[in-house]
Design a protein that fits this description.
Shape: globular
Strand order of the largest sheet: 2-3-7-6-4-5-8
Helix content: 25-40%
Strand content: 15-25%
Number of helices: 15
Radius of gyration: 23 Å
Length: 460
């Protein structure tokens, strides 16, 4: 078949690709947090005094979960090290470099404050192995309890703000240039970077302009940050800034804004840094790793430079797994999750901003000039509710319609048919030279599904 296919991997009962997430004390309760702490403290402390590091974002409920996790961990006999308000990548870095058994980040990333999440990180700073996640879920649903520690075996809660400071020093050490004379805007999304980002860029000599760095527990991601880039775009233009960077609630994402206020998304960031690494001889024969949702324009631009690429399922977890297995050095998502294989084991928004600045400073070019060679193709995506996802995708007439679209688009576009992992929904996406062409090709495939009796409704 000529059509590209993608899949949103089915989730576990509680944990998805980015942790256990839901509305605070509705889907994810304080009891869940306590039991997760109890299990991890027991699981990692079978043959030694376990050490678990915890970070949190600025949500109102994050403090509640921090206390519950700490109580659970210490009740099982392990020590809980508290980094307090910090970023997900900082927890990953500290877990990896300071000999912790695992790490926990309390955050729902880019979601509104009512939601929260618990992200589990292994001792290598990676997303927790599926086997451990499965064991946590079995414990949450089971009737057996972990033994309670007694006497001197009860664990301690330890202030570990120093770990956050060492992470900040690590970020600064990765900046190879002074930013003196550069006017840089930062949108902290009233989240994890609110007390961190400005100090990093100030230390590197920038004239730093910061917005959305006054969290109150309820304003995280509210009309700001990487999911509401329009605020930073306006701010960059009004203040005549050279560049802007927007982070999400836990700062594992970064999107950029050029000097004219134009968005530079994750695809363009991967192009800019990938092409720079190629030019410097740092890429070798490695490839850029994307998900199937990266824009067709990225692949066209990489092709022109002779840079290879891999495509994974949607989720930075799968990007990282591909990078680790194949030794690739850069990968990420359009949303701004960018992973640098030699420097981190998770997406890191602040590190991404530093790497973009390295290209700007070394090449003495504006961000708009660096991004210009990658032309973003128009895209139309429609979600269709179907009677059976697999039956619909395997229907020979649906496949033939996809093949016909692929043939007609040739090298000037693509079609992607992708099934949801959580709903009876197929996603039909086309990228082509015009929105009109995208719309026409998407509707052609959906019409075939409808005529064959697969379609229930088209969802926006």
């Amino acid at each position: 078949m000529l059509c590209e296919y993608g899949k949103e991997n089915d989730m576990s009962k509680y944990f998805g690709t980015d942790g256990f997430r839901g509305e605070a004390n509705v889907d994810l309760t304080v009891d869940h947090a306590f039991k997760i702490g109890r299990f991890l403290g027991w699981y990692y402390g079978k043959d030694h005094k376990a050490k678990i590091v915890i970070g949190k974002d600025t949500r109102l409920s994050s403090y509640m979960y921090e206390c519950a996790l700490t109580a659970g961990i210490t009740a099982s006999g392990a020590d809980a090290y508290l980094m307090h308000v910090t970023t997900t990548p900082s927890v990953s870095h500290i877990a990896r470099t300071e000999d912790f058994d695992c790490g926990i980040m309390i955050s729902a990333s880019h979601n509104a404050y009512m939601d929260n999440g618990i992200k589990l990180i292994n001792g290598n700073g990676e997303k927790m192995e599926d086997a451990v996640i499965d064991a946590v879920e079995a414990y949450l649903d089971g009737t057996e309890d972990a033994p309670l520690a007694k006497g001197e075996d009860i664990g301690r809660a330890v202030d570990h703000a120093a770990g956050r400071n060492r992470y900040i020093a690590y970020l600064i050490s990765n900046a190879l240039n002074s930013y003196k004379g550069m006017k840089i805007g930062l949108d902290c999304s009233n989240g994890s970077t609110w007390s961190m980002a400005k100090s990093v860029f100030d230390a590197l000599g920038a004239d730093t302009y910061v917005i959305n760095n006054s969290p109150d527990g309820t304003n995280i991601n509210r009309g700001c940050g990487s999911t509401h880039i329009e605020g930073l775009q306006k701010y960059v233009i009004e203040n005549g800034l050279d560049v802007g960077f927007a982070f999400d609630g836990d700062a594992d994402r970064c999107l950029a804004v050029d000097e004219s206020g134009e968005l530079v998304d994750g695809d363009k960031i991967m192009y800019i840094i990938g092409s720079y690494m190629k030019e410097k001889g740092q890429l070798g024969d490695t490839k850029v790793v994307t998900t199937v949702m990266s824009n067709f324009g990225l692949y066209k631009a990489l092709d022109k430079l002779g840079i290879g690429y891999e495509k994974t399922a949607v989720g930075d977890k799968y990007v990282y797994e591909n990078m680790r297995e194949n030794g690739h050095l850069i990968g990420g998502e359009q949303s701004g999750h960018i992973i640098f294989g030699k420097l981190a084991n998770t997406g890191d928004g602040l590190l991404t901003a530093i790497k973009v600045m390295q290209v700007i400073m070394d090449k003495k070019m504006k961000l708009s000039e660096l991004a210009k060679p990658m032309v973003t193709y128009p895209q139309v995506l429609k979600n269709v509710k179907v009677t059976d996802k697999d039956v619909t995708m395997n229907d020979s007439d649906v496949q033939a319609a996809c093949d016909a679209v692929t043939e007609e688009l040739g090298s000037d576009g693509r079609i992607l048919l992708r099934k949801s992992g959580t709903e009876p929904v197929l996603r039909v996406m086309v990228e082509a030279g015009t929105f009109e062409m995208c719309e026409k090709m998407v509707d052609r495939v959906i019409d075939v599904m409808d005529k064959k009796g697969h379609l229930i409704e088209v969802k926006k």
